[in-house]
Amino acid sequence: MPILEVKNLKKIYQTRFGGNQVEALSNISFTVRQGEYVAIMGESGSGKTTLLNMMASLDRPTEGTVLLNGKSYADIREDELSSFRRGHLGFVFQDFNLLDNFNIKDNILLPLVLSDCSRKEMKEKLLPLVRKLGIEKLLEKYPYEVSGGQKQRTAVARALLTSPSLILADEPTGALDSRSSEELLKLFDEINREGQTIMMVTHSVQAAGCANRVLFIKDGKILCEVSKRFPDEDIKPQLFNVLSVISAGGKNNE
Amino acid sequence: MNNKLYRRLAVTNLKKNASMMLPYLITCVTVISLYYIASNLSADAGLKTVPGGNAIVDFMKFGIRLFAALSVLFLLYANSYIMKRRKKELGLYHILGLEKKHIRKVLSIESAICSFASIACGLIIGIGCHPFVTAGLTKIIGTELPFSGARSGPAAANTIITFCVIFLLIFFFNMRQIRTASAVELLKGGRLGEKEPKANWLLAGLGAGLLLCGYTLSFFVHDPEKDTDIMIGAVVCVMIATYLLFMAVSIVVLKLLRRNENFYYKSKNFTLISGMLYRMKQNAVGLSNICIFSTATLLVMTTTVSLYFGINNMVANQYHHDVSITAEAVEEDKLSELLAFIEKNKKQYSLQTANILQYTGGSFTEDLDEDGESDYFFLMPLESYNKLTSQNIGLAKDEVLVYSGSTNVHSDTLSFAQKKVRVKEYLKQFPVDNDFSGIYGMKWLYMVSQKDGLLADQFGPYGASGLHVEFDLTGEERDKSDFSYAISKKAERSSVEVNSRFEFRDSLMVLYGGLLFLGMLISMILLAKTALSIFYKQISEGFDDKERFNILEKVGMSSKEIRSTIRRQILIVFFSPLLLALIHLCVALPMVSKLLKTTFMDNWVIILNSSAVSAAIFVMIYGAVFLLTERVYRKIVTPSKQ
Ligand SMILES: Nc1ncnc2c1ncn2[C@@H]1O[C@H](COP(=O)(O)OP(=O)(O)OP(=O)(O)O)[C@@H](O)[C@H]1O
Ligand SMILES: [Mg+2]
């Protein structure tokens, strides 16, 4: 059974003044299986963030359904949505989204605290995770006292802490230098090998090259996808190819 | 750039910042109209002709100075919040190529527009409200006021000049902020990564100690006139303690709560405590100011309301009979004439006289105990005493009877101008009861002696042989008052002195009515400004909190939880200063009541009721501001859904 099913997803943004409508997504369908590592690529404004927000249940689609573990988001009541999100999804963002007023430890624990878990459970889950991510020395520090890469690892720890079915990452390497990016990608690779399903939006071919499968979006539609035929295949040349075709196609259309 | 462009830019800026500017402008208008009203009253020639009206004029003169000082303080404070928010926008202009001198020009046009608009509106409202205000004042004072006119040029000019100066001051303050800020700073708008505040146990302990000290000191005030040092000490202690409480104690408490992991790691406390901790550093001073001003408002309200509603109590405490008449022995004819007048005319006012008390005597100050302290006493000849009590007591030449209203013990021999007299008996009661001294709680000693005894030389024509007549009137209140005035008028030209409860009450009404009126104006201004500053504080936090709640929502906090966190956070921020102010008020009540006793107002029930009513009104208005603020804050903070 697929872990995530996206069926005929459509999103129309109503601009604030007047009737100008923007169709950010039109008729998108795909499925993600347990343990997959999927990247989404596309030009700026193609609808990647919109799609991720739908899958994150942060925004409701105009049409179509999203099912996680067979359960449709449309069937979840508004007031249960956040606890559902907390329990089943993990987020990693480009700008980390850490809270300034919490230290690293509390930032990581946030989802568990919001679910009112016991202290014992928190401690049991926290320690192995931060050790794995190499941030156990930073627990008492505040976000403004650590580096960008460390912040992103904190965000990853926060996302992993609840053992979610799916990790959603929106340009997680976007604000990192190349070394931190590489470390983060290695980390994603590692947790994916341990069975974690990941979905990542990215602009970087380097990052997308780590995924098993890459979806290309243009103007709110899935254009094509590239998959690895065996685990360690280098698909970067293929990705470059597709990207150049897309941008050339964009020019031809004008 | 030409001037037209500047003007257009200024106007669009004002429109864009309307929701931010409006509360500020409304407060400006309120203050200006109140200022105009107060300065108009202080310049009113008609008011001076009313007995006691000079006091009102003095109150108003004091009031306008206070208003001006408070305006500078609060408007600067509110303005600094607006500027903090606007720094980003101005920084953007800077990046876009506007030089600082251009920004200055735009800002000066903006503040010219705002100043002109608020002064004009304030004056119009002030002039429009003036008739109602004078009507209200008349009602409070209970005397028809011959107001000379509704409009007054000098008052308007005074208002315009004062507020032009204040607005200019604020403008220069803004200019300085822009001059000193760099472009990057302007862009960031003062939002740099802030360190978590440190718990300062020393300051926290000092704060708690000072509060305790101030509270204790306030209970040691016995006589407000003598114990001014203690009183000022208590006030200063409590004020410093308030600042320390918000700056240090709050952080220590929050840190302790955070250290308690079982408490802290609960969804309903987690974000609240860390949020408060983060906020407290920047807010401590603001919250302390709000607390102190709330306390001041509450105290002003309590005292002025108590004084006004305690007038009857004061009258009863100082006048034991409705009318008391005093005359020197040589004026006996005039006195009889007046008494005959009263006898003849009381029917005309459909009144009866009752409890008539007629005696002779005079008051003296002597060191009776030879302890270096003067004793106040009233000397009465034996025959007058015998007549009053229908007795026939005899006294030896050096013997006296003494009645002491207070608990002070006196010896059996008293010295009186180098003469020693023996006290034959300390009387248990005395037919006359008077507090001539004008000092609350200071009871007179009453001494009875034979006219031709050892103290004979005290009974000369201007000594202890003064004539006193006291009586009550029974009938309608209105008639009693009219008759009292008639008696006074009759005695006007002689040296017979007439005092009546009714005249006294009317003079108190003017005095304390005027004070109540001033108190209401001051409370209104303080309240408006307290509300304004807390509103701005909270709103400016809203912009900072927006991002936090955005993140929290993404991480899985439901909008319901966000709402409840916001509500509790604002509740705490709003009501902690109020709560402390109410505690200050409660503790200060004994001191306030002692202060009020100097005016012979000693009715606890009235004081308690006044403070309860004042607190209730204050809490109600404060609550309304809370609801408004919460709404605006929530609109800013909660991520808008499509
Ligand atoms: N809240 C919104 N209201 C109206 N239109 C929107 C809104 N959010 C996004 N859009 C529009 O929808 C389209 C897709 O936006 P989206 O943010 O998904 O792009 P993206 O692929 O994530 O781009 P980028 O790579 O730059 O982040 C864009 O044309 C954008 O203008
Ligand atoms: Mg995006």
Automatic annotation (TrEMBL), chain A:
One of its GO terms (molecular function) is ATP binding. Keywords: ATP-binding, Nucleotide-binding, Transport. InterPro entries: AAA+_ATPase, ABC_transporter-like_ATP-bd, MacB-like_ATP-bd, P-loop_NTPase. SMART domains: AAA. GO terms for cellular component: membrane protein complex. Pfam families: ABC_tran. Residues 4-244 form the ABC transporter domain. Signal peptide: none annotated. Belongs to the ABC transporter superfamily. This is Putative ABC transport system ATP-binding protein. It comes from Paenibacillus prosopidis.
From TrEMBL, chain B:
It is found in: Cell membrane. Coiled coil: none annotated. InterPro entries: ABC-4_Integral_Memb_Prot, ABC3_permease_C, ABC_permease_BceB-typ. GO terms for biological process: transmembrane transport. Pfam families: FtsX. Its main location: membrane. It is a multi-pass membrane protein. One of its GO terms (cellular component) is plasma membrane. The chain crosses the membrane at residues 21-39, 59-78, 111-133, 153-173, 201-220, 232-257, 286-311, 509-528, 570-592, 604-628. Residues 66-179 form the ABC3 transporter permease C-terminal domain. Belongs to the ABC-4 integral membrane protein family. This is Putative ABC transport system permease protein. It comes from Paenibacillus prosopidis.
